[in-house]
Write a structure and sequence with these properties.
3 domains
């Protein structure tokens, strides 16, 4: 959805970085803040054709402008995904409340998975109201900088370094996804093994790759797989707050269903239908169920007392989600 307005700090005109730019680059920077493609996190996909059409520039002008903004450290840009990230965007337009943060995280999770999106998630994790929302997506905010570390500067190599083998990237993905599934299930280190066997069959490192082979047939990203698993666990814990699957095979069907619905357009990558809250403490799940039950009982009543009570229940549910995720 297009934003109705954009917030640009007045200090921009006193910035040496900005003032040192030629007029074309200044216009492009203001365009990136105010174009119809910008969102609430200042990071979005911008194909060259969009900018050339909006600014009535040729491709070379757009490319030169982006290069100048990159050198001035005013933006970052992923050339493979055409993903632009406005540097310090959230510093001047921070999240105002949990609802604002939830919408922003949802937008961020739909962006292409690349280094700039990972840096954006790290920036979001430092925002007020954002950490509880990120945890609902199975993202441990403390580990973001370690999971996606910034590369240290290296001297220019004399010979072109060998690219990291595809198998190494695949292994990193397996390890990361396993850690996130453990986090979603709420398992602690001392709970992973029970009487010499894994509490959740298939979570051991020997059998985990076999499970991933099944899930990878659906060509989903780690984030999408976590969404499907999060939804399945959340729905199960609405009925049984202590639910924990005996085997990760339990998630085969929810992941397949999510992939099918995604392909058909029935849901998007961050559909609310699968982003059901997860409660790791039974008392939280019980309170959630009680609030929802009372709310449903008031749905057909329009007297002032019932309307006021429904509003209060909505606030109680929002507060509960924040409390549970803290």
């Amino acid at each position: 959805m297009m934003r109705d307005y954009a917030k640009i700090s007045c200090t921009l005109w006193g910035s040496r970085k900005f003032r040192s730019l030629p007029d074309d680059a200044k216009l492009l920077y203001l365009y990136l803040h105010t174009c119809q493609h910008v969102n609430s996190v200042g990071c979005y996909v911008l194909p060259e054709g969009y900018a050339t059409a909006d600014l009535e520039w040729n491709v070379e002008q757009v490319r030169n402008g982006i290069e100048m903004l990159l050198k001035a450290d005013l933006i970052a840009f992923d050339r493979t995904e055409n993903l632009v990230r406005i540097v310090d965007f959230l510093k001047y337009d921070p999240f105002a409340n949990p609802k604002h943060a939830a919408g922003a995280v949802k937008i961020a999770m739909k962006l292409p998975d690349c280094p700039e999106r990972r840096r954006l998630l790290e920036e979001i994790s430092r925002q007020t109201h954002a950490q509880p929302v990120l945890k609902q997506y199975g993202i441990d905010t403390v580990s973001i900088p370690y999971r996606y570390p910034e590369p240290e500067p290296k001297p220019e190599p004399k010979t072109k370094p060998e690219p990291k083998p595809a198998a190494a990237h695949d292994e990193d993905r397996k390890v990361e996804l396993r850690q996130r599934v453990i986090a979603v299930l709420g398992l602690k280190g001392n709970e992973l093994n029970t009487s010499g066997t894994f509490k959740v069959l298939g979570m051991d490192r020997d059998n985990w790759p076999m499970r991933l082979e099944v899930w990878n047939q659906h060509r989903l990203s780690n984030d999408q797989i976590i969404l499907a698993i999060t939804g399945a666990v959340g729905r199960a814990r609405q009925k049984d707050p202590t639910f924990c699957p005996s085997s990760v095979k339990y998630f085969d069907q929810p992941i397949a269903t999510f992939a099918r619905d995604l392909m058909s357009g029935k849901v998007d990558a961050t559909s609310e239908r699968v982003a059901v809250p997860i409660y790791l403490i039974p008392e939280h799940a019980a309170r959630d169920a009680a609030i929802r039950k009372e709310y449903e009982g008031l749905m057909d009543r329009e007297d002032s007392a019932s309307v006021a009570r429904r509003k209060k229940l909505v606030k109680e549910l929002a507060d509960l989600k924040i409390e549970a995720a803290a």
